[in-house]
Design goal:
The protein is mainly β. It has two helices and 37 strands. The strands form four sheets. Strands 5, 9, 12, 13, 16, 17, 20, 23, 26, 27, 30, 31, 34 and 35 form a 14-stranded parallel β-sheet that branches. Strands 1-3-7-11-15-19-22-25-29-33-37 form an eleven-stranded parallel β-sheet, with helices on one face. Strands 6-10-14-18-21-24-28-32-36 form a nine-stranded parallel β-sheet, with no helix packed on it.
Length: 281
């Protein structure tokens, strides 16, 4: 689509993307429209002179206010997307999209709908050097296929609605990082297949509303080790019923609160190496 006019900030975005440079706001700048970012990522024509080229480094945006829904549903995005410390006033729609690379370090977003998204590289929804990735609504990655790592390192998810993270049936080609994250609501890893390790050291999970389960990973497959130790804390059941671990399941020093009785379920689980349950300190 051809835009009748672009703001000065949006014109600078086109120039930065062509050179592989990071876009940063100027003093008193206007928000970037999500529709402009979408058109640029999909190599659509934004201005009458023709499509705007994007460098191989991708679209790189720092500290922007992004206005509107960034909607890539069923689209194929070949350019890497890098967002750092950006504030999105509406959610991201990635349903059945195909992305090359997604990084949202330190971003704030109402929620993400990534049902059956395919990401050919990593998906990094993690802390930046200055602030956590924050999603008050659900991050939905049900049935997603992510070739690289999936990282929620130092992130804060949930608080609005019963589910913080839904990765039911997802496949992760590398490791899954929940380290030092805070999850308010259910974390659903049912039937997830993680080819690498599950890192949840220092993560805090709480499911308000007197729910029984805070982490459900029934039938999950972990190709390496699962680290739920060094400050891992869960209020509610951690359910690994019928899960398979090629390596060890290490809960040394974990704090498991069980308001409704059962703190940890390993019913019919298979663990290929060590089961660590010692009390550290």
């Amino acid at each position: 689509m051809v835009f009748e006019s672009l703001t000065e900030g949006e014109r600078r975005l086109l120039a930065a993307a062509a050179k592989g440079e990071v876009w940063k706001p100027d003093a008193g700048g206007q928000p970037l429209r999500a529709s402009v970012i979408r058109a640029l990522a999909l190599n659509e024509t934004l201005v009458a002179s023709g499509p705007s080229p994007v460098h191989a480094k991708g679209i790189r945006i720092d500290r922007a206010e992004i206005d509107g829904v960034l909607d890539f549903e069923s689209a194929s995005v070949q350019t890497p997307l890098w967002f750092t410390d950006c504030d999105f006033n509406a959610g991201l729609i990635l349903r059945q999209a195909k992305l090359a690379h997604l990084a949202m370090h330190g971003c704030k977003v109402p929620g993400i709908d990534g049902h059956r998204v395919v990401i050919q590289g990593p998906c990094l929804l993690s802390r930046s050097s200055s602030r956590p990735f924050l999603a008050e609504g659900t991050v939905n990655l049900t049935g997603a296929r992510i070739a690289g790592e999936l990282s929620f390192l130092g992130s804060e998810l949930g608080g609005r609605g019963p589910v913080a993270l839904d990765a039911n049936g997802a496949e992760i080609g590398a490791s899954l990082f929940l380290r030092h994250g805070r999850f308010t609501g259910l974390v659903d890893l049912t039937r997830i297949h993680v080819h690498g390790n599950l890192h949840a050291q220092g993560a805090e999970l709480d499911h308000p509303g007197n729910e029984k389960v805070v982490l459900i990973a029934r039938g999950a497959r972990i190709g390496g080790d699962a680290f739920l130790r060094h400050g891992f804390e869960a209020t509610g059941m951690v359910d690994f019923t019928r899960a398979e671990f090629s390596g060890g399941l290490l809960l040394d020093g974990a704090i498991l609160h069980a308001p409704h009785g059962t703190a940890l379920s390993l019913n019919q689980a298979r663990i290929g190496a060590a089961l660590g349950l010692s009390q550290e300190g």
